[in-house]
């Protein structure tokens, strides 16, 4: 059964929304895309435009999944500092699970926790500014932002 739909988000660009009520702990989506090095992915997206940056999902081995290449609707998941979904890495694949029950039509969020080599670079940091409205927002999608 189809669980989610992609449409315009009030937070940023497009977002992923629940089509019906979801239970806590439900596996909703796999984050698909080409697995490559962080360096390759950043270089590619610098050529193709800034927007592509947020299609990258970091794996624990330092590589990234590039949702801009062969990705699915999971690439439209927006970041939030208090997300309602979590990402679970299982043998090099990333799955999105709900952290709590989700209402129909609610937008799904994950915490990106991106770590980047060039985190000191202000221009790069600005591209990862967080727009979520959580009271505990740390203003950035980067894992080392605190
Ligand atoms: Zn935030």
From TrEMBL:
Predominant cellular place of this UniProt entry's protein: cytoplasm
PROSITE patterns per UniProt: SET
GO terms for cellular component: chromosome
Gene3D superfamilies found in the cross-reference section: SET domain
Stored SMART domains: SET
InterPro entries: SET2_Histone-Lys_MeTrsfase, SET_dom, SET_dom_sf
Keywords linked to the UniProt accession: Chromosome, Methyltransferase, S-adenosyl-L-methionine, Transferase
Domain SET residue range list: 2-113
Localization of this protein: Chromosome
GO terms (BP aspect): methylation
A molecular function GO annotation: methyltransferase activity
UniProt-listed PANTHER family: SET DOMAIN PROTEINS
Name of the protein in its database record: SET domain-containing protein
Organism: Paraburkholderia domus
């Amino acid at each position: 059964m189809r669980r989610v739909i992609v449409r315009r988000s009030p937070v940023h660009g497009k977002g992923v929304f629940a089509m019906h009520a979801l239970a806590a702990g439900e596996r909703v989506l796999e984050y698909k895309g080409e697995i490559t090095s962080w360096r390759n992915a950043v270089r590619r997206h610098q050529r193709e435009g800034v927007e592509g940056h947020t299609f990258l999902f970091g794996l624990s081995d330092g590589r990234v999944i590039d949702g801009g290449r062969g990705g699915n609707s999971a690439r439209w998941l927006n970041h939030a500092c208090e997300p309602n979904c979590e990402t679970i890495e299982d043998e090099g694949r990333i799955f999105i699970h709900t952290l709590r029950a989700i209402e129909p039509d609610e937008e799904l969020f994950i915490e990106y926790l991106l770590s980047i080599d060039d985190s000191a670079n202000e221009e790069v940091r600005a591209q990862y500014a967080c727009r979520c409205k959580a009271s505990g927002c740390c203003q950035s999608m980067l894992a080392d932002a605190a």
